[in-house]
Amino acid sequence: MKIVILDGYTANPGDLSWDGLKALGDLTVYERTRPEETIARCEGADIVLTNKVVMSREVMEALPTLRYIGVLATGYNVVDTEMAKERGIVVTNVPAYSTESVAQMVFSHLLTVTNRTEHYARQNREGRWTRSQDFCYWDEPLTELAGKTMGVVGLGNIGSRVAQIAQAFGMKVKAMTSRRQEDLPKGVEKVTLQELLSTSDVVSLHCPLTEKTHHLIGEETIKWMRSTTILINTGRGPLVDDEAVAKALKEGRMKAYCADVMTVEPPKVDNPLIALENAYITPHIAWASTEARMRLVQVAIDNVRAFVEGKPKNVV
């Protein structure tokens, strides 16, 4: 059985093992694959694993031996699932492997804004504290989270975990969700988007990207927010309108924007958010803790093994 991994580098740059897949077939691992290389590299493969390489109708039509596509992620929009269904190709994903890692990144971003640890660490590498006349100093406001309101947009696995951590910090939690109020965790209040944006000190985005949620945070909805609001996006880049958020930050209509995802990745050099002092951008790494990647790789291997044994799981 021929197994091909098209873009294995981001999930496993060399610190983890693909040995579990080697035991199941003839494995070839490519670090990265350009679109024009996809068909040739998948030729003759029974099983293909992909993270970001698109498995389109055209690609699948050119691969008569293909029986299985394993997505090395939770989202599976890189696969034409309709075509896969027509061809009888099993498609699987890896659900919920990064919940803890992404939730942790939300609060890493939030604490960066409220406590400015990187700001002071950088200054003190340059000797500022050693020159201080007092035992301490601060030149940026320090903010407690206790008593503040966290607005969570979307209460799936990650959104629910973020809400739980926020409560542990002593924050009040409001949520925009399709779930009923009686089904929400204790202490979480269901509200509309307008109420959430207008009453929250911190807004964290965790909803799926759909036609309705594309640019959910844009020029009009930003008007509902406080000028002191901290907006955090670890969901999908296009949930926000980059131009509108950048404009709000420049004009003082939003305190900070923290993002681990961008509309285009890698972002273009002229993206209006990249150089702003009150925009905190990390390179799509919330999912990438060692522990989360270990879970990702192991579940991906287990998915393939289950398929080979005739009992596929995590089928999308």
Keywords:
seven-stranded parallel sheet, 31% helix, 316 residues, 11 helices, globular
Please explain how this structure is put together.
The protein has 316 residues and is an alpha/beta fold. It has eleven helices and twelve strands. The protein has a seven-stranded parallel beta sheet with strand order 8-7-6-9-10-11-12, sandwiched between helices. A five-stranded parallel beta sheet has the order 2-1-3-4-5, with helices on both faces. β3, α3 (57-61) and β4 (68-71) form a beta-alpha-beta unit. α5 packs across α7 (157-168). It starts with a strand and ends in an 8-residue tail after the last helix.
How does the SSE layout of this entry go?
Blueprint: E1 2-5, H1 19-22, E2 26-29, H2 38-42, E3 47-50, H3 57-61, E4 68-71, H4 81-87, E5 90-92, H5 99-115, H6 117-125, E6 149-153, H7 157-168, E7 172-176, E8 188-190, H8 193-199, E9 202-205, H9 219-222, E10 230-233, H10 242-250, E11 256-259, E12 279-281, H11 290-308
Parallel strand pairs: 1-2, 1-3, 3-4, 4-5, 6-7, 6-9, 7-8, 9-10, 10-11, 11-12
Helix pairs in contact: 5-7
Q: How many strands, which pairing sense, and closed or not: the largest β-sheet? A: 7 strands, parallel
Determine the structural class based on helices, strands and strand pairing. Answer: alpha/beta
Number of strands: 12
Helix content: 25-40%
Mean pLDDT: 96
- What radius of gyration results from the CA coordinates? 22 Å
Number of helices: 11
Q: Based on CA inertia axes, which overall geometry fits?
A: globular
Beta strand %? 5-15%
Unreliable residue runs: none
Enumerate the strands of the largest sheet in spatial order, edge to edge or round the barrel. 8-7-6-9-10-11-12
H/E element sequence? EHEHEHEHEHHEHEEHEHEHEEH
- How far is the first residue's CA from the last residue's CA? 22 Å
